[in-house]
Amino acid sequence: MSVSSESSAATDDKSFPIVVLISGSGSNLQAIIDSASDPESCIDIRAVISSNPNAYGLKRAHRAGISGKVFNYRDYPDRSSYDAALIAEIDRHQPKLVVLAGFMRILTTEFVSHYSGRLINIHPSLLPLYPGLNTHQRAIENGDTEAGATVHFVTPEVDDGPVIIQAHVPVFETDDSNELACRVLKQEHIIYPKAIRWFAEGRLTVQNGEVLLDGNKSLKQQVYSDEK
Ligand code: GAR
User: Fold this and answer.
1) Is the CB of 55 under 6 A from ligand 1?
2) Would you kindly state where each structural domain of the chain is located, as residue ranges?
3) In sequence order, which ranges of 75-202 are alpha helices (DSSP H)?
4) Could you name the CATH architecture of 16-217?
């Protein structure tokens, strides 16, 4: 996989266009908006696209003065026409990176290939553990003592692809899935803006399916702890 961020060195102007895709609350979107508002950030959120007309994330985009648009799957006869329309809309904004932030749609191979190397996702588990839904409940039921979140490049497999960064949190015996989800989400809000910044600064490369930061394997993962 090639990563197309070579021409993206950080500057103090907003020179790195991204498009963010959401379906729900948009708390990760908010973390990205907040991070992009830092004068040091080169991230320019050109548009937010939601698969869900009622997504709270659309309000967050509106509040931040970012263009928000709904692409409801009900308006399209099939997955491939939906994805083709989505591509046309995203490309209008000429993003250097497309960010899936709780976008709860399975994407076609055509979509993923179109954005190969510049499409990233966040998933609330320590991938490859627990792709799909109900990640926190599954971790609790398995008796895991650790959970977390993963930012990764997207490949055609659902919740799969080279890992950019993972945050680890403890699972406590008394946790229910909501408590665990909150603990993980807090870390998502830290690692996603960080991964986007790394990408924009041209610091990520993918070699043999592995992501390197500044050419260094050992910096791939960052571990966070959390007190109860
Ligand atoms: C986040 O927990 C994100 O990791 C997850 O959806 C949530 C969206 O929350 N994504 C997936 O499960 C993707 N497979 P948000 O709308 O508040 O950012």
Assistant:
1) no
2) 16-217
3) 79-92, 109-114, 135-141, 177-200
4) 3-Layer(aba) Sandwich (3.40)
